[in-house]
């Protein structure tokens, strides 16, 4: 059974269209990575699917119901999101921050129940942060803080977790630490993980399913073998990539790449000088739009 999917989804800000007629299925109990250049609509898609921002038209369906009609607390029991830049947790202890994940289950005065405390401790244990429970969030390293935010998402006890660039600002070791944790949550607990990633090789290594976006539209969606390909990356990122195999996982990986120069590519196709000028103008407009996004 398909739990989460979109149909002809359109998202924008004012007159500016970001995501266009997008129909996609999110595989249940798998790790899905969304890739694409800056400004292509990755984060916008995540925000719309989790109802942080409204969509203009189309549908986002979860368990056979439009999320637009779902009760907020019921929806928060089904999906959790870790945004790209989490809100400040200054002054809070780790335990206090993670306790916010229990909000959908609280009633009346909002006091924590024995069940809430049990789930909070479990989330801290699962993310390896139980030793920090009474420590200030401000005193933690970047990797530790990211794991604590993931613990808060786990405390919601949702089956679907969305993460917007969870490895941003982390060094290589902490990036690997976070991604291995997410993969473990998927394989051992059956959590559906959906995350935006910039690193193609991280997406290929940790994701079961990859969605490649360009200008708010899907270029390719499928397994890492189907998406991490020279022709797909050329279309999505305008790069000429050399694809090899990861010696440790045997999954495809981008070994190196060159930026494709628009002029030379068009010249090889025999386009006129006027066409080349139009191409340069379009590219400059795209870059301006991406910078604005």
Automatic annotation (TrEMBL):
GO cellular component, one term: plasma membrane
UniProt-annotated location(s): Cell membrane
A GO biological process held by the record: iron ion transport
Keyword match ATP-binding: yes
Keywords from the named record: ATP-binding, Cell membrane, Ion transport, Iron, Iron transport, Membrane, Nucleotide-binding, Transport
Annotated CDD domains: ABC_Iron-Siderophores_B12_Hemin (cd03214)
Membrane association type: Peripheral membrane protein
Region Disordered, annotated ranges: 266-293
UniProt superkingdom: Bacteria
Membrane-spanning intervals of the chain: none
GO MF: ATP binding; ATP hydrolysis activity
Signal peptide segment: none
Pfam families: ABC_tran (PF00005)
ABC transporter domain: residues covered: 4-240
Protein name, entry field: ABC transporter ATP-binding protein
Organism: Cohnella nanjingensis
